[in-house]
Design a protein that fits this description.
Elements: E1 4-7, H1 11-22, E2 31-34, H2 42-46, E3 50-52, H3 55-60, E4 64-67, H4 74-81, E5 91-94, H5 101-108, E6 113-118, E7 128-133, H6 139-150, E8 153-157, H7 163-190, H8 195-216, H9 220-227, H10 233-243, H11 246-261
Parallel strand pairs: 1-2, 1-4, 2-3, 4-5, 5-6, 7-8
Antiparallel strand pairs: 6-7
Helix pairs in contact: 7-8, 7-11
């Protein structure tokens, strides 16, 4: 079984580690988690993961290197691990927003195979939507990365120039849909439900709506048509939301997040 080093064990790195172990893709002992402050990783060490504050050493013992640091930290990390990178051994996977394969190879070496991957935090429960792209990875390595992320959700291979857009729609999108659920639960409180009841109702309703599309493979509007009747309460509520910019605000938010994601990383520094 291959060994994995997750460089930068914040929310997304830890979500990935937990998801891969939960799906039995790899044992916890074959994953090394790195972080500057190891106190945050003590519960993971107790769960069987290897932990380290030395990125270079973690890379040396790994076959797959997953870069999960903040974009602003990446250049320093790449300089740190570059001496340990062996193009014949290592597959590098980056889950960092706005950073191209070319930018990583510029630091680590042109022969290093790099795959960009954009999961979201639902990876921890095996429900991620992960997009992957590469400009030089072999078919075998792409298949391995696909298999890795399919154990923790769905995977779509896309062109690399769409990776920033994937960040906004899938990674940031988790927060957008959570905020919509929160708003629905607040509406439930206003019409008479206790907060815990309203949240449970909103969560299950949102899950049901998503599953309808996944299982029926239908368009949202066809499912909406089944709920709306002439002069009914559903269409009245939908139209009120649209008059107040529901769809347009979500579209604008996704576009702005995509723009922001594309500007998080600079080669300087």
């Amino acid at each position: 079984m291959k060994k994995i080093a997750i460089i930068g064990s914040g929310n997304i790195g830890l979500s990935l580690a937990k998801g891969l172990v939960k799906a039995n893709f790899v044992q916890a002992g074959n994953i090394t988690l790195t972080r500057r402050n190891l106190s945050h990783l003590q519960p993971y060490q107790e769960a069987g993961f290897q932990i380290s504050s030395n990125n270079n050493e973690a890379v040396k013992t790994a076959d797959i290197v997953i870069l999960a640091v903040l974009p602003q930290q990446l250049n320093a990390v790449l300089d740190e691990i570059q001496p340990a990178i062996d193009p014949a051994k290592h597959l590098v996977i980056s889950v960092i927003s706005g950073v191209s394969c070319a930018a990583i190879k510029e630091k680590l070496g042109a022969d290093v195979q790099v795959v960009r991957s954009m999961p979201n935090t639902a990876i921890a429960i095996g429900q991620s939507m992960t997009c992957i792209a590469s400009d030089n990875a072999s078919a075998n390595n792409l298949a391995e990365v696909t298999q890795m992320f399919e154990t923790v959700g769905s995977v779509v291979k896309i062109n690399e120039d769409l990776m920033t857009s994937a960040t906004a729609l899938c990674a940031c999108g988790i927060a957008f849909f959570l905020r919509a659920i929160r708003a629905a639960s607040q509406g439930g409180v206003e019409i008479g439900f206790h907060a815990d009841e309203a949240l449970k109702m909103a969560v299950q309703t949102a899950k049901g709506a998503a599953d309808l599309l996944l299982l029926h493979k239908t368009h949202p509007e066809s499912e909406i048509d089944k709920v709306t009747s002439p002069k009914g309460c559903t269409i009245a509520g939908l139209n009120e939301m649209e008059h107040n910019g529901f769809s347009s605000s979500l579209i604008k938010g996704i576009k702005l997040s995509a723009l922001k994601a594309g500007n998080l990383y600079t080669k300087e520094g």
